[in-house]
């Protein structure tokens, strides 16, 4: 029996199968973290989406908190802002954009201010001064106070009200009152009634670490003052200054100026480490297909009420790119967008010592490629996960446990159950039928019927090859094993005279297309040419056609199967997740072995599409849908009028492959085959069968244990249950079987379990 | 000498018998080994032939979780 070497824990070397640069460029593609269009257009970078969400939920306190992050004087900004965000709102494309500014105004008016509850803020030691008045000076004072700088404002106005009045004529009376109170509450020193002359300025500035001035004052005290707008700074005069007109220019200017002050106070170049400032382009993708073309809640002259604002905020569709999460059960399971998940998975491959926490997610992706099709940017998670798996294998860090069963199953397909023969009477054949390992395991009678039909109706000889195409080790990231399998198949094909391969499974077809010089077609194409055979089962009712992930991107296969189904009289139910957008049944990528929970969710996702019977053209899909209790047919079962019946368990899947091989060898090729018979009787309780399927224990494993018991007599007797319990190490696992004796020379198996750890007696 | 640390202990309490040797299993010293790691445990062991018994609950419980943790190291 074949074995696979378990990894050690000492042998570590680094081979990167995906470079950091490649990974970064892949991660970049995911636009999930791009700002929504409104925020991107807002020079102050308001988290508009979050604010609108809070407002829509009626949580004005939270909305205000978010708004105040960019607006020290929220009423002034919201009543005066030119609102570039509104034009950027995606809803503009189907109707009215969200009335962001009017909602902000309501938030500013009705939002309860959160008290800083006695939090003592230590003031910074560097002092700042602002000369002048107007919006820039006001906003800058607010920003600097927020940054905890001691601020002194020197203005010509005689009092606070007149200072606030400057450039805020658009405010209504109530708003003015509120902002006046807000200003009073801030820790800002005022020196009113100053004559802001060059002399006065020169006299005062020396007392402060950083000085700022409104544009008017700056130009008055230094005739030659030139502002660098990105910094709001006159370098010559070392003066932070205002520039530009309008409310937004003042607010954005104050924000940039505050950062410049910060840098100057730390004696740093104000040009350095500023991060991204101002409006940006967003690459976010928003699906507008379900957006309603509603118009705005009418805006009364006095502004929205609380309720109206909440109503209008509800129109925000909360732009998020979730195309892939909507369609892929795996991504949904881990609740992470691919950009982030890919980064974490990549990092996982770089860990030498310590926990590889992302092993499970990395092995749960079915490598089906659906995300690449549904993602507006073609994000390729399959490539990330399969690259990561190969990386883990190459550094000897890949655990064998999640994939060992599948890998051994593949070895079984290509060793014990492997068959390759030319059609009797031919030495070299024009064709070879390659049904795929799952077809032989799940629907052996269908495979046989198809082979006999092809032999009868095609000229030039049709050989048969029963085996695995190598998808299993490819999915597992075992690239060395994959290369070996590929060579093996090539050698076998050469023996047959390099015939045209008629694939019975789209995944085999895809895998075999990686072989140079292999000519390929699909059985669906051949059947379209030949016409349906006699005995085809017409299914004249609506059925949901499930496209195999192996056929993604292969229009020809998808189309041929559709035509074939049409000829079978099926009325196909197509849904948005048909064809190239089809999800994986959970078998792909070995998800079914590595993460049953996710695989189950994938199957459910596939079955969500329709309540009708499912027709598929991959045996694994057929099997998983039937297992889920859905009426499920492989298209070849319909073509040949066969019925594979209830889904087989893991041991039956092996038994079917072996029996098919032996039956065909005897009956078609007249070859002797070894008897598969035990020299004792073995039966299983239903519970034992269920347990074995669940725990991936084969009858072959149980037989190995009992054979061992018969040889050595080693077992224990549990007097509580009366069960005999024997064990045997097979490959990398120890299997335990609890049984009773039954009949003359026989056993009844009651329980079975296994573990991978080795257990030995310890001396002393 | 410091008390030896055992990661797991089960006492067969006379309920288990070695079929081959016809004697009851006793609490004995054993070791689990996986991926180059070893853990001392105390399990039901045959005093004569040294058969070490790993009960189902242990195999599917503690042993499995330790296996998983080591696999992802
Ligand atoms: S569809 Fe998914 S992977 Fe693509 S950009 Fe959107 S969130 Fe990212
Ligand atoms: S609808 Fe909402 S999320 Fe979309 S752009 Fe407008 S404010 Fe932003
Ligand atoms: S399971 Fe398929 S759709 Fe989901 S991330 Fe993996 S390759 Fe993409
Ligand atoms: Zn013994």
Please name the defining characteristics of this protein.
heterodimer; A: 764 residues; alpha/beta; FAD/NAD(P)-binding domain; 4 domains; 6-stranded mixed β-sheet; 5-stranded mixed β-sheet; 35 helices; 21 strands; 44% helix; B: 73 residues; alpha+beta; two-stranded antiparallel sheet; two-stranded antiparallel ribbon; 1 helix; 32% strand; binds iron/sulfur cluster; binds zinc ion
What does this structure look like?
The complex is a heterodimer of chains A (764) and B (73). With 764 residues, chain A is of the alpha/beta class. Chain A folds into 4 domains: 20-31 and 322-399, no CATH class; 128-265, FAD/NAD(P)-binding domain (3-Layer(bba) Sandwich), CATH 3.50.50; 402-650, no CATH class; 681-755, YaeB-like fold. In chain A, 44% of the residues lie in helices and 12% in strands. Chain A contains 35 helices and 21 strands. Chain A has a 6-stranded mixed β-sheet. In chain A, strand 5 (233-234) and strand 6 (239-241) form a beta hairpin. Chain A is elongated and about 115 Å long. Chain A starts with 19 loop residues before the first helix and ends with a strand. Chain B is of the alpha+beta class and 73 residues long. Chain B has one domain (17-71). Chain B contains 1 helix and 4 strands, in the order ββββα. Chain B has one helix spanning 56-71; strands at 16-18, 23-24, 26-34, 37-45. Chain B has a two-stranded antiparallel ribbon. Chain B has a two-stranded antiparallel sheet with strand order 3-4. Chain B is elongated, with a radius of gyration of 13 Å. The termini of chain B are far apart. In chain B, 27% of the residues are buried. The mean pLDDT of chain B is 88. The A-B interface holds A 6-10, 354-357, 359-360, 399, 401-402, 712-720, 724-725, 727, 734, 736, 738, 751, 753-764 and B 15-20, 25, 28-37, 40, 43-46, 49-54, 56, 59-60, 63-64, 66-73. Zinc ion binds at residues 18, 20-21, 46, 48-49, 51 of chain B.
């Amino acid at each position: 029996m074949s074995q696979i070497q378990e990894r050690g824990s000492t042998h570590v070397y680094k081979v990167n199968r995906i470079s950091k640069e490649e990974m970064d460029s892949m991660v970049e593609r995911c636009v999930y973290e791009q700002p929504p269009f409104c925020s991107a257009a807002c020079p102050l970078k308001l988290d508009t989406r979050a604010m609108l969400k809070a407002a829509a939920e009626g949580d004005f306190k939270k909305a205000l908190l978010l708004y105040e992050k960019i607006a020290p004087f929220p009423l002034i900004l919201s009543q005066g802002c030119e609102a570039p965000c509104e034009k950027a709102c995606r809803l503009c494309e189907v109707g009215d954009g969200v009335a962001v500014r009017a909602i902000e105004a309501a938030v500013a008016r009705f939002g309860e201010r959160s008290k800083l509850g006695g939090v003592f803020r230590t003031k910074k030691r560097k002092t700042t001064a602002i000369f002048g008045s107007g919006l820039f000076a006001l906003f800058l004072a607010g920003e600097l106070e927020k940054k905890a700088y001691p601020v002194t404002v020197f203005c010509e106005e005689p009092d606070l009200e007149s200072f606030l009045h400057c450039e805020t004529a658009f405010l209504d009376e109530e708003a003015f009152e509120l902002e006046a109170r807000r200003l009073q509450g801030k820790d800002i020193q005022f020196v009113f009634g100053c004559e802001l002359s060059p002399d006065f300025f020169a006299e005062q500035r020396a007392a402060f670490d950083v000085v700022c001035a409104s544009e008017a004052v700056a130009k008055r005290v230094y005739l030659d003052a030139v502002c660098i707008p990105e910094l709001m700074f006159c370098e010559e005069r070392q003066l932070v200054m205002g520039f530009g007109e309008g409310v937004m220019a003042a607010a954005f200017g104050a924000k940039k100026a505050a950062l410049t002050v910060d840098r100057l106070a730390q004696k740093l170049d104000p040009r350095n480490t500023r991060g991204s400032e101002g409006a940006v382009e967003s690459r976010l993708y928003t699906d507008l297909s379900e957006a309603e073309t509603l118009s705005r809640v009418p805006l009364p002259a006095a502004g929205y009420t609380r309720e109206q604002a909440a109503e209008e905020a509800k129109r925000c569709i909360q732009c998020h790119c979730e195309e892939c999460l909507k369609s892929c059960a795996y991504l949904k399971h881990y609740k992470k967008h691919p950009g982030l998940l890919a980064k974490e998975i990549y990092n996982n491959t770089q860990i030498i010592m310590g926990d590889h926490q992302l092993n499970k997610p990395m092995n749960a992706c079915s490598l089906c490629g659906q995300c690449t099709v549904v993602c507006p940017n073609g994000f390729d998670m399959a490539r990330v996960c399969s690259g990561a798996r190969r990386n883990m294998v190459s550094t000897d860090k890949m655990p064998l446990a999640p994939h060992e069963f599948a890998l051994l199953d593949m070895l079984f397909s290509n060793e014990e159950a492997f068959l390759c023969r030319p059609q009797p009477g031919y030495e070299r054949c024009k064709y070879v039928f390659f049904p795929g390992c799952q077809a032989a395991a799940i629907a052996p009678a269908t495979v046989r019927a198809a082979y006999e039909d092809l032999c009868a109706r095609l000229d030039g000889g049709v050989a048969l090859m029963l085996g695995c195409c190598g998808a299993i080790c490819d999915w597992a990231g075992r690239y060395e094993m994959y290369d070996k399998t590929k060579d093996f198949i090539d050698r076998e094909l050469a023996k047959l005279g390099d015939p045209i391969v008629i694939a019975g499974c789209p995944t085999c077809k895809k895998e075999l297309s990686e072989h140079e010089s292999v000519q390929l077609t699909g059985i669906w194409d051949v059947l379209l040419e030949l016409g349906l055979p006699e005995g085809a089962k017409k299914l004249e009712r609506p059925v949901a056609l499930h496209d195999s992930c192996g056929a993604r991107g292969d229009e020809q296969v998808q189309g041929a199967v559709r035509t074939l189904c049409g000829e079978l009289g099926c009325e196909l139910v197509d849904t948005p997740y048909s064809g190239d957008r089809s999800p994986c049944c959970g078998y792909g990528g070995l998800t079914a072995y590595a993460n049953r929970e996710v695989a189950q969710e994938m199957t459910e996702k596939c079955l969500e599409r329709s309540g009708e019977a499912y027709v598929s053209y991959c045996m694994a899909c057929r099997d998983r849908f039937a297992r889920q209790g859905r009426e499920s047919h492989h298209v070849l079962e319909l073509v040949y009028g066969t019925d594979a019946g209830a889904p087989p368990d893991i041991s039956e899947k092996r038994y079917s492959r072996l029996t098919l091989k032996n039956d065909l060898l005897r009956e078609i090729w007249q070859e002797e085959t070894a008897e598969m018979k035990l020299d004792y009787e073995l039966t299983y309780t239903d519970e034992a069968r269920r347990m074995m399927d669940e725990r991936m224990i084969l009858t072959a494993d149980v037989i190995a244990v009992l054979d061992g018991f018969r040889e050595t007599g080693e077992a224990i007797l549990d007097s509580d249950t009366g069960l005999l319990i024997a064990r045997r190490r097979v490959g990398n696992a120890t299997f335990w079987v609890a049984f009773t004796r039954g009949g003359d020379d026989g056993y009844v198996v009651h329980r079975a379990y296994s573990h991978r750890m080795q257990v030995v007696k310890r001396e002393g | 000498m410091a008390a030896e640390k055992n990661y797991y202990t089960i006492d067969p309490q006379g309920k288990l018998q070695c079929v081959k040797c016809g004697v009851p299993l006793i609490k004995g010293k054993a070791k689990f080994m996986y991926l180059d790691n070893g853990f001392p445990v105390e399990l039901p062991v045959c005093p004569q032939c040294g058969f070490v018994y790993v009960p189902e609950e242990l195999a599917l419980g503690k042993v499995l979780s330790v296996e998983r943790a080591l696999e992802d190291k």
